């Protein structure tokens, strides 16, 4: 049986903190021989989830930290994101559809793509709030040869 | 944010010298695009061949840049790397832009006009 391998980091809930975390995630995935396409998917969904924390979780207090945990198994990359910010509203997890692009240019959306991308590329997305901590989990399935 | 622009074959080619258009630089990207493209009426080709990552903020900023040009000027995209192309495709935004393999391909359309 192949034992899962992984990493845990804590960083500031800022845009630059997120860049650093994503860079460490990429190094880890490449060292673990994850294929480029799967590394790419992981980076996108983790970026979107972390950006949401930066934008919303600590809006009231101004700063805070994020914990990112990653475990890799033969079948998937398991991601856990923890923060101590405000609770995530339930409506955030409603099923998202791709935007309607059949509109005038001026009416095209400039946002709201993040959760759609997460839903498209992950499985087992779950959210729990425990003891003042937001816990978001998701799995990125790995392409099999 | 490092970007530069040059005129080729009647198009304004804007080259992004950074590897990421993400939440950290989305606003700077929008501002600089407006600054670089407001001086002319030419259609714009955005050269993304150095960009290996965009997130939804980056995508939103590119949509905003297109809107800034107005309906008479098209925004072309060139040199999309696979992980960037994936974001456009999954959000269906690939249908909204003219996407080319390279800047040469994009400019090649204009050979007769020049």
Would you give an account of this structure?
The complex is a heterodimer of chains A (145) and B (114). Chain A has helices at 15-31, 36-57, 114-121; strands at residues 5-12, 65-72, 76-83, 123-130, 133-141. Chain A has 145 residues and is an alpha+beta fold. Chain A has one domain: Histidine kinase-like ATPase, C-terminal domain (Heat Shock Protein 90). A 5-stranded antiparallel beta sheet of chain A has the order 1-2-3-5-4, with helices on one face. The longest helix of chain A has 22 residues, at 36-57. The mean pLDDT of chain A is 92. Chain B has one domain (3-108): STAS domain (Transcription Regulator spoIIAA, 2-Layer Sandwich), CATH 3.30.750. Chain B is 36% helix and 24% strand. Chain B is built from 4 helices and 7 strands, in the order E-E-E-H-E-E-H-E-H-E-H. Chain B has helices at residues 26-37, 56-69, 82-90, 103-108, and strands at 3-8, 11-16, 20-21, 44-47, 53-54, 75-78, 98-100. In chain B, the strands form 2 sheets. In chain B, strands 1-2-4-6-7 form a 5-stranded mixed beta sheet. A two-stranded parallel ribbon of chain B has the order 3-5. In chain B, strand 6 (75-78), helix 3 and strand 7 form a beta-alpha-beta unit. Chain B is globular. At the A-B interface, helix 1, helix 2 and helix 3 of A face helix 2 and helix 3 of B.
The CATH topology of chain B is given as: Transcription Regulator spoIIAA
Mean pLDDT across all amino acids of chain B: 93
Strand order of the largest sheet of chain A: 1-2-3-5-4
CATH architecture of chain B: 2-Layer Sandwich
| CA-based shape of chain B | globular
């Amino acid at each position: 049986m192949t034992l899962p391998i992984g990493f845990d980091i804590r960083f500031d809930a800022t845009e630059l903190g997120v860049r650093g975390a994503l860079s460490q995630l990429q190094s880890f995935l490449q060292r673990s021989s994850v294929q480029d396409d799967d590394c790419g998917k992981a980076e996108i969904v983790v970026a979107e989830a972390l950006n949401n924390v930066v934008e919303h979780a600590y809006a009231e207090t101004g700063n805070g930290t994020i914990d990112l945990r990653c475990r890799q198994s033969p079948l998937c990359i398991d991601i856990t994101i923890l923060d101590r910010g405000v609770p995530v509203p339930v409506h955030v997890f409603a099923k998202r559809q791709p935007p309607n692009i059949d509109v005038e240019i001026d009416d095209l959306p400039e946002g709201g793509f993040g959760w759609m991308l997460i839903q498209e590329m992950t499985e087992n997305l779950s959210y729990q709030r425990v003891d003042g901590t937001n816990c978001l989990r998701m799995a990125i399935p790995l392409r099999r040869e | 944010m490092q970007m530069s622009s040059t005129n080729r074959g009647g198009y304004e080619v804007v080259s992004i010298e950074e590897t990421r258009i993400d939440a950290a630089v989305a606003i700077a990207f929008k501002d600089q695009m407006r600054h670089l493209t407001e001086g002319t009426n030419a259609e714009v080709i955005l050269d993304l061949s150095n960009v290996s990552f965009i997130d939804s903020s980056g995508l939103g900023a590119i949509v905003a840049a297109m809107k800034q040009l107005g309906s008479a000027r098209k925004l072309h995209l060139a040199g999309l790397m696979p992980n960037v192309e994936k974001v456009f495709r999954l959000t269906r935004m690939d249908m909204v832009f003219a996407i080319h393999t390279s800047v040469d391909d994009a400019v090649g359309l204009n050979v007769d006009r020049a």
